[in-house]
# Entry
Amino acid sequence: METVVNPLPYKIAVLVYVFDDVGRMLLLHRVKAPNQNLYSPIGGKLEQAIGESPYACALREIKEEIDIQLALGDIRLLGMVSERAFEGQTHWLMFCFEVTRPLNFPERTMNEGRLEWVVPEKMLELPIPDTDRAVIWPLVRQHSWGLNPQRRGVESTFAVYIDCRQAGALRATVEHPVARLHNGAASEPRP
# Structure
């Protein structure tokens, strides 16, 4: 068992991927940490003190950040991301959701940054977190109904563990769907 000298805080959050009726994706160009000056989906931390669920948090963040009230049937769980020692400061558990119908509204500035519609093919040209670029975005592209309309209705989720302890050397393990090795055995997650 690993000995932890200075444990890092563990934060739980949601990310929400929103698309409009022409296939653009909503991103927040952040002016605050974490991910200051980078683009990311809307979202925020769970209100743990009240026992908020990830789904309730996603709906609350949608209402707070884009002022649209949605119901449970309007979102779906896209995946889960565990980040160990992100920026050497925090462990994160993030639930990734997507809105299952197009939403249309103008870009605007808010207290956390600027909400902008982006063509998904341009995502990798933007300043985004390294974990998004290397791991999360490829999984979202693969599993999202908004990015793969032909897969609408097919349940497809992912779970990934990203070890961020070494800057510039992310180690990711896709934990769901389980990766199979050449001999048919399942790969094992890293601690």
About this structure: The first strand starts at residue 10 and ends at 17. The mean pLDDT is 91. Residues 10-176 form a domain with the Nucleoside Triphosphate Pyrophosphohydrolase fold (CATH 3.90.79.10).
